[in-house]
User: Fold this.
Amino acid sequence: MILYYNIPDKIKNSIHYEGDERIYYAVPFDIDQNADWVSDSYLVVTTKKICVFLNGEEQKSYDIADCTAAKADPRVGGGILTLTHKGVEKIVVHYSAKHLSRYAYIARGINILISGRFEEVESKEYEKTCPKCGRAIPGTKTCPKCSKEGGFLKGFIRMAKPYRKSFFGIFVLMILAAVTTLLNPEIQKHLINDVLKGDGGMKRALVFLALMFSLSIGIVIVNILKSNASARLGAKISSDLRSQLFRKYQELPISFINDRRPGELLNRITGDTMYIRMFMEDVFCNLFAVLFIFIWDVIFMLILNAKLALIAFIFLPVALGITVAFRKTVDRIFRLQFRRQDDVSSDLQDVLSGMRVVKTYGKEKAESEKFKNLSFEFARIQRRNETFWAIFSPLLQLIMGLGVLAVVYFGGIDVLGDKMSPGELYQFVTYTSLLFQYISWMNRLPLQLAQLAACMDRVNDILTQEVEKEDESVVSDVRINGEITFDHATFGYKSYQPILEDLSVTVRPGEMIGIVGASGAGKSTLINLLMGLYEVDDGRLLIDGRDAKTIRKKCYHSQIGVVLQETFLFSGTILENIRFSKPDATYEEVIMAAKRANAHDFISDTPNGYNTYVGEKGYSLSGGERQRIAIARAILTDPRLLILDEATASLDTESEFMIQKALNRLTDGKTTFAIAHRLSTLKNADRIMVIDKRHVAEIGSHEELMAKRGIYYNLQMAQNS
Ligand code: ADP
Assistant:
């Protein structure tokens, strides 16, 4: 069974298999030790050995029984896979950056094989193939390319589909507007020919004028109705799109949100949806009317006077040619402009949300300078764009003006030679102007489409992101007892760079575990895994012996309480903020929780008590007070598992005392993981876990670890001194 990738039969057959030996992994690599590109090169891992095929030939082979560890190390522009073989670390293959994640998996797989846990390797679902294109897909995801295929137009049509009734209504109005627009020159022709020139008398003239007036009123009414309907539809589409995006943001894994700048995510919801609305209102809703009028206009012109029509049409390819010639430039400068605009708003959003840090480090000037540069660059591109249009538009108008002039000239000759009536010439000139007017409108279309394509791309990028669906087998009614086990768990924010590796530890129900380690050792990462924000890449996280992945997130989250260093308060009252963890909690329950969290007294002292407005622009609470709100939030749900992240750091003694007492009440009898910088705050912990170099370096009670004279002992000594 090959778990990863396919290899040519030639290589598969050239391996010497012993007994029931099978291939586990077979993956290509693309560079050699001199960083030269190679082809037809593979790493093949069987149940017994690891073979390297370079340029189609077997180069090296290592018995798994002689290996003790495998490691995938990222390097500049790629990485290396090393094996500890007979006690010596050897570089096995080199590969470029595109293989980084794959080799990280392989290294972990080899380590599992080395430790003899074969079933674990076999039970893993590594690489699937996309049903559409056959591309290899890592993990359980669907092919990202296929899910986005179809281009923006398909995406746009998909998005517009639910509103087809409204579109149909607008379409009917557009046709009405087009018919009335085309009818006007016909009436004008009769007015000139039959009445003015044919001396039809004032009475008939008035009839025609009344007809023209009614038609104009009709056009105005139809246009008002059309604009109204398209504005309503545009607003509805953008509002629905905004809600869809917002819902998607809630569903997407935290890693997706973390990988993007907040400003960028905000822009998708505000800027892009606004443009899509504008496009709907101004362009899409006129598009069919314009095409309809355009086609009829051409037909009428040909019927009226084919010679004059052809004269007018000569100018069309010129206008079209100019548009096509500049198409690429238009596309490029506008895409550039959107990108710069995005940069400016993203930067603004980032700086505004990080204003405290900016001010603390006195970086106002540097940030202003950076923003000024971005803004200047945006203005420069905008200026360039406008200059371009300032030349491009009049050039087109000139060509069209020449077209009308030619029609008047040759038509005038026909009128003088009695081959055409003045009314017909007037009608023809009106049709010609209309034709050019719509050509000019259509000229902006590629640009508007380019802008729409950019927006749709970005919106679709979010909307088509795969949301990891919970399995059918996931249960939603487990009562957590509190035994937590990390079973050979490995995790990295980037799959090829593990932060925690092969972590194995069991925490008993009700136990309090202190987590200690240098900054960046992975303490918060461990907490993130416990909170279910990320899933382990390898190994398992077990809750009461059950794989955490098989417990519904909602059920799991309702049984964990979290008190973090920084408590986030939403804009709302204190009551709402405490109730955040349990929206259906009664007022009495909230007060009870606040009392147990030592928060009731200070809440009573605020201007409106529990109804005091906090959060941004609201009443300011101190760090300690915020933490007590967080403790009250946690108490309210009576969680089975508690996570405290440096909960008593940076507080005055009074606050610390109050918080410590509240925490003691909260943690009583519950499995608790507590990170602390100040080791003294961990004196209540049953055991202390020291994380170092991606592993649990030490674990035991304070006394045991002190007696060990290892990392914990050194940290204690350093803090005491
Ligand atoms: P600690 O809490 O012990 O200070 P962390 O768990 O926060 O350490 O970080 C461990 C490592 O993971 C650090 O190298 C850090 O840069 C990296 N890291 C933390 N959060 C993220 C993230 N969201 N994305 C990528 N890397 C991260």
Observations:
- The longest strand covers residues 67-75.
